[in-house]
Structure prediction request, 252 residues.
Amino acid sequence: MRFTDKVVVVTGAGSGIGKATAEAFAAEGAALVLGEIDSARLDALVAELSAAGARIAGVQGNVASDEDCQKLIHTAVEKFGRLDVLVNNAGIMDRFLPVGELDDATWNRVLGVNLFGPMYTMRQAVPIMLEQGGGVIVNIASAAGLGGGFAGAAYTTSKHGVVGLTRNTAVMYGKRGIRCVAICPGGVKTNIGAGGMPSQEGYAALGPGLATMPRAGEPAELANAVLFLASADASFINGAVLPVDGGWWAQG
Prediction:
């Protein structure tokens, strides 16, 4: 198993890509610290993986809170003694709102979860990884982090930010043993789009491009990409931003 004796933190672990990623790491022998805002989902997943023999801790919290992110990262060290892999998966959508319809609450909420959250966890994780001699950070960005025609203004901005944060971190810490990479999913069968009716203007503008998506991905397909990038098999991959979208981005 590729991750025996490794300690992995996954945010947004209660459903979708995060849940599939947690399950995949557990199957590969990792000890897990799972962050999730929904306590019922978190408790159910912790119970499921514990019953299967995984070493696991659950931490309920909101990644938009620096305090909650500190608690999440330091739980890994307190419970398991180290931190080898951080997967920043937690994310929310923005109802395809164009900038002319964008309200402060949506802007702050989306950037808080999608961009501030990864920065908060990485800021805590990097000193730990440096002290122990290395580690891997895998950020879940989006096709919206590569182009402008996949989501609303807030989500698109947040995911472009994640791509920039990934590349900068790779350059800053690569020679000191920390790899930082990102994957950019296309449409995936998750509940990220829940939370209100989309903007009619925004969806009308983006709809033709969205319709060219080859198919929706399965969460397990994204989890497989995360595991590869986090593994020793990807030891020479740093700063990469990888579309995992069935070829959707290649059509552009």
